[in-house]
Specification:
The chain is mainly alpha-helical. It has one domain. The protein is 42% helix and 7% strand. It is built from 2 helices and 2 strands; from the N terminus they run E-H-H-E. It has a two-stranded parallel ribbon with strand order 1-2. It is elongated. The mean pLDDT is 95.
Length: 83
């Protein structure tokens, strides 16, 4: 069983709404928590704060999900539990 170095609580910040405003608000709140956690090495939240509005093919939620996937990969690599 893995020993986790850190726990970050962000799941309560996820939104079920998929419109740009709600997705961007959620991603900003998640970025705030990540930035405040002082991860080593640091995880860049720059893209979390600038979610594209999307188009007919990629919605804001699609971009957000890609970024969250990258966060989960980072967390697995550095033994960080995301709750």
């Amino acid at each position: 069983m893995a020993k986790w170095r850190k726990i970050i609580k962000i799941k309560h910040l996820f939104t079920e709404k998929e419109d740009y405003e709600n997705v961007q608000k959620s991603m900003n709140e998640i970025a705030d928590v990540i930035d405040a956690s002082n991860l080593i090495p640091p995880f860049s939240t720059k893209k979390f704060r600038k979610i594209p509005r999307g188009d007919d093919y990629f919605r804001p939620v699609d971009y957000a999900n890609k970024l969250l996937s990258a966060l989960y990969n980072y967390a697995d690599k550095y033994r960080i539990w995301i709750d």
